Description:
Low-confidence stretches of chain A: 348-376
Oligomer: heterodimer
Order of helices and strands of chain A: HHHHHHHHHHHHEH
Largest interface: A-B, 51 and 58 residues
Largest sheet of chain B: 3 strands, mixed
Distance between the termini of chain A: 77 Å
Strand content of chain B: 15-25%
Mean pLDDT of chain B: 88
Structural class of chain B: alpha+beta
Helix content of chain A: 55-70%
Radius of gyration of chain B: 20 Å
Number of strands of chain B: 9
Number of helices of chain A: 13
Radius of gyration of chain A: 22 Å
Distance between the termini of chain B: 58 Å
Number of domains of chain B: 2
CATH architecture of the largest domain in chain B: 2-Layer Sandwich
Helix content of chain B: 25-40%
CATH class of the largest domain in chain B: Alpha Beta
Amino acid sequence: MKPVMHYSEIEGRSTGYYGLLAFLGAIIAIALAATYHMEHSGHWVTGMNNQVVWGIPHVFAVFLIVAASGALNVASISSVFGKTAYKPLARLSGLLAIALLVGGLAVLVLDLGRPDRLIVAMTYYNFKSIFAWNIFLYTGFMVIVAVYLWMMMERRMNQYSKQVGMVAFIWRLALTTGTGSIFGFLVARQAYDSALLAPMFIVMSFSFGLAIFLLVLMASYRWTERPLGDAMVQRLKNLLGVFVAGVLYFVIVYHLTNLYSTRLHGVERFFLLEGGIYTQLFWFGQILIGSLVPLFLLYHPSLGKSRTMIGLASVLVILGGLVQMYVILIGGQAYPLVLFPGKVPANISYRRPVRGQSPLLRCPNSLAGRSEPPPS
Amino acid sequence: MSEKQDNQLSRREFLSGSTVAAGLAVAPGVFLTLTAQAKPADQAVSSDNRWGMLIDSNKCANGCTSCVSACEQENGWGSANPTENKSSPEQKAQWIRKVTLRDKETGHVQSLPLMCQHCEHPPCVDVCPTGASFKRADGIVLVDKHICIGCRYCMMACPYKARSFIHEDLQDQLPHAPRGKGTVESCTLCVHRVDRDSDKAVPACAEACNSEGHKAMVFGDLKDPDSEISRELKNYGGEQIRADLGLNTGIRYRGI
Lengths: 376, 256
């Protein structure tokens, strides 16, 4: 007899459910209050400045947007690559993708200097701008994944879910390419200006999105007391390991290519050796905690079987991902633009790289998005 | 008395008229080119002009900031607008700044003013999602404050760190230089002066440099072969900052 799949909704009447809603609602309320304060007073309250123009909000926004497309992985594996074992999880995957994208976009829009002009962004387009393309890529992604969810949830439409899944898969690749290219196309900045950023962001999305998916999956199944087979968790954690290694590979290639080019030695020295908080975050946050430790946990013969350890590895991948975004975004801006090769500024503002500062000292400022020392 | 004044005036007019006539006879080309530049106020700017500036770092005096002060006064920012008082120095607008450089090998110290370079191919215009960052036909790069959404992508893209974001509410703005919280701004090459009288216009920074006697900044039309800036560039050359990017900047330097 052919096995029949039964989906049943979460009842949503337990104290735990309302507690979770209230907790998340409180976070949103605090965020809205902060947004109101910032928009009313101006961005001076955030600590951002004319050197670091994209701060902590962008770190989270870009992380969420990148993770959103990665959260769709499981649905894609099920529809596009025909692995039926993943089918029961495909709906959660699509829903999570939309939720993460909406979250990232909300942060991005609310951090604009003039969020009230969102309608302007929707009506005036400069098609040479990768930002303008991204507006279509993001909204298009939401529409396509919503249709995809409909195809999966409406029995009569199930037959089309493979085709729509294929469109969604291609679209999410384009979306992450677009997000990586926001930085890759910045030719003037030494830390960016690399075509490698686009594929690197795609692998980052695979990794971050799957880590978030794994955590949500394990938590929701546990809280709703549904059975989750070890085989599925093992497959997903192995996949996560491959993605984490993939990100590490791209990071290594990115830095090796930069190291080969003499004109980029300065920026590499900054990131790898002398960048203070950025160097420490890179080695300890991104490489050790975000890549090597999760790889160890995921592939360890006994630890790799423990769900607690798989959960811990997922949390570390997410933390490492946020750190990686911080290093790319804020570190890339903190490194001074090279305008006069062979000459050093004798007085100019905002030109000196950060070096030798402890993360603890920098923490309050870093959290506020202010990341460079005052001009000397 | 009034009769005498009339006589003097007519004599002056006569003299200037004959000078013009002589100029026409001696060098008609020069005269005609100058006439062709004059533009009525209701006429759109044209790509027949390209406004630019030549800055001689060797003439730029170390420690002198009169170009910066003049720009502040002319456009109402920095010390000329005390209502921008909540922002830190790194947050405050800086349309033009003085840079002092030391050569790592030779120890040679030089200074120069740095502002929007008014590129022919401006990266800020390429990346702006709404088209608020734009280049006029005559080469001046500006921000349309009405459609700027404050995303700061132009600031990320600008190789010269020429742009500033307004971090707070501002009062007492000048009618010709409106500024708005949450939008981005930069050097306009004193576009209001250029539009008022393109023949005689000189941006406030260059005017101040001249009156200080340094004469380090020459403003003019790069497309007019007889303009001072074109002649200087043709005869003695000039360099662009980050020429490797191929942006063809309107601001050129000498001695960098």
